[in-house]
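Entry, Tuesday afternoon. Goal for today is a structural model of the target with magnesium ion bound, before we commit to ordering more compound. Inputs were pasted exactly as handed over by J.K., no edits. I checked the ligand SMILES twice against the vendor sheet because last time a stereocentre got dropped in transcription.
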Amino acid sequence: MAETNPTLDGTPENAPGLDGAFLRTQGVSKSFHGRPVLKEADFAIGSGEIAVLVGKSGSGKSTLLRVIAGLEEPDAGDIHLAGQAVVQGGEYQGAWKDLHGQIGMIFQSYTLWPHMNVLDNLTIAPRLTLGESRAQLLERAEKALTEVGMAQHLRSRCTQLSGGERQRVAIARALMMRPRLLLCDEITSALDPPVAAEVLGVLTKLKEEEGIACVIVTHDMAFASKAADRICFFEDGLIKEDVPPEHAFNDPQTPGLRAFIDAIRF
Ligand SMILES: Nc1ncnc2c1ncn2[C@@H]1O[C@H](COP(=O)(O)OP(=O)(O)OP(=O)(O)O)[C@@H](O)[C@H]1O
Ligand SMILES: [Mg+2]
């Protein structure tokens, strides 16, 4: 058997031959206007894992998440999801259509529809795409809101919610599509530290209770040191170091990560 990373196996979706990773990118490249931003980036995450991406501004973190989410087409490289090739040689494969629903993405700025209440925000996409009944969707919305501690806000107007509450609703909305992987791009950057800690705590709970994998771009190093299974240090369009947090903080191997840790030491 191939040598496996012990943090990357253990669930039924994990396929043999991919070292058990739920998602794996291999050699993913992307240029904008002839300038390479991702340079053959390799990344993998297993079910029930939290990987925190760190690195300087402009190093390509958001671009990698956007490529994984299908919001940006890679120029080259392969992506495997749930054991199937969804991108090969930079081209989307048929399996992408069936599997992309397993990926949810949440952004920094509030992406809720302000004129709708919480329930409508949660149900609009699944109503249009999954064809489920109102009763089924209501039940699922209640469950998703309970998971993020927002059950009492089912009928609240989004404009009346605080920043932290909105981000928890944004997570609940992503959960409505039953993702197995959540991509979170600086979702707490606009929040006060205690509120940010609560929102990020929701992700830890989802990982532990539902086995959802989370790739999180955050500057919250207190969270990263406590909750991440791995810290992935991004530099010049690829991951230069991929290690458990204790290694990243106490024994960084690359000069870039060493400088980064020194600069943000908390
Ligand atoms: N759609 C686009 N068109 C042109 N250039 C882009 C586009 N998206 C990203 N870039 C460029 O690619 C580089 C990497 O951007 P990216 O947003 O991935 O960095 P980042 O690591 O997320 O940075 P930050 O920490 O500031 O969010 C930047 O120089 C950015 O200007
Ligand atoms: Mg970014």
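The two ends are 42 Å apart (CA to CA).
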